[in-house]
Amino acid sequence: MSGLVVSGLVGVGGGWLDGGVSEIPDLDAGAVVWSHPEGDRDGRPLLVLLHGYGSHEQDLFGLVPFLPDAFTFAAVRAPLSPPFPTPGWSWFPIEGLYERDSETTTRAAERFLAWVDALGHDGPIGLLGFSQGAVIATQALRLRPDGFAFAVTLAGYADPGILPTDAALKELRPPVFWGRGARDEVIPAPLVEHTVAWLPEHVELSGRVYAGLAHSVSQDELDDVVAFLGKRLDDPAG
Question: Where does the Phospholipase/carboxylesterase/thioesterase domain start and stop, copy by copy (predicted)?
Answer without folding.
Answer: 41-231
